[in-house]
Amino acid sequence: MADCENNSDHSLPSYSAAEPPKLSELLDRGWKIFEDVDSTNEPLGSNHIQVRVKRGIAMLEDASRMVAQLELFSRNEELEEVATTDLKFLLLPALLGALSMKQTSREKRLNLVRTARAYFMDFLKRCREYKVSHFELPTSAEEDISDFSESRSSTSKSAPLPSDLVAMAAQRQAKIERYRQKKELEAKLSDVRKAIESGKADDEVSRDFYLLNIRRWISLCLEEIESIDQEMEILKNMDALKEGAARPSQPARPPMKPFILTKNAVQARVFGAGYPSLPTMTVDDWYEQHQKHGALPDQGIPRRVAPESDTDAKDREEEEKEEKVEQDDEESLMKARNWDDWKDNHRRGYGNRHNMG
Predict the structure, then answer these.
(1) pLDDT tens by residue, 247-290
(2) What's the confidence (pLDDT) of residue 51?
(3) Residue 315: pLDDT above 70?
(4) In b/e form, how buried is each residue of 192-212, taking b as 16+ CB within 10 angstroms?
(5) Which terminus, N or C, of the chain has the lesser number of Cβ atoms within 10 Å?
(6) How many whole angstroms separate alpha carbon 56 and alpha carbon 2?
(7) Within 10 Å of residue 90's Cβ, how many Cβ atoms?
(8) How many whole angstroms separate alpha carbon 117 and alpha carbon 115?
(9) Sign of CA dihedral 311, 312, 315, 320
């Protein structure tokens, strides 16, 4: 919470070109906007909230440029050498990163989380240089993502190694310790804040208030960086899937051209003369084309019995006759005798009208 910000953002005076805002006012207003956005019940993606977020980012960026021009911080000085009134400006990168995470543009989400991570890392590095608190500085984003992917793939293929289990246990213990410290810091902040808001705080209480806020933001930034690294991997995988889906798997098939089916070549010439862009085809052409490709419905079905099959049928018929004769079938014998008598009395070709001999 900003030290002297008890009024709403709209009640703050507007600044003109003739009256540029002071550095402390820019930080307090940007800090107040973040607290309002962080605790609001309105949808984060609403236009009103997003406008306020952008205003807060612009104010904090202006304050950061002024801090750089004034050279308020140096790597050659200790934390005790920093003035109490300047301590709160250490929070500028952390507040910028937190407000950047409040932006909801889906198209620019990957760039937004990268920017926020850079702000958080800048804040943590400055706090580590001043030895505000003891903590492990996170590695770069690419190293975190690659390590996370490798560990996930290795655990999916086989059981985790003992060294991995030790690292996971240490990471879990560090998270528990950070959570415990954050709760203690919030409890102390609630007590110190009452003295700050009453206006009776001396320099020592004010310094303690800012240091407690800085240590609290260290825990918040470490948690945010872990979440950002996981989100960055998900966003990169989503982009890769979109690129893969955009590429066609196979070339599109060209549409079939229509044609008129005619009975003969004469009709084909008649229809084709009036519609030169529409090809025509006779029935014979259509039949030959489908026969060539084996697409006719009766192809593969024999239409007549093969000669071998016909000979076999005749042989079977003669054998049946012989068997009946051998069995002394009277009807068969009578038919055979009558047939022999008829052939004796009638010469070959009898009854054939075309036989003129």
Answers:
(1) 666 666 666 655 555 556 555 555 545 445 555 667 777 778 87
(2) 94
(3) yes
(4) bbeebeeeebeeeebbbbbbb
(5) C
(6) 13
(7) 23
(8) 5
(9) negative
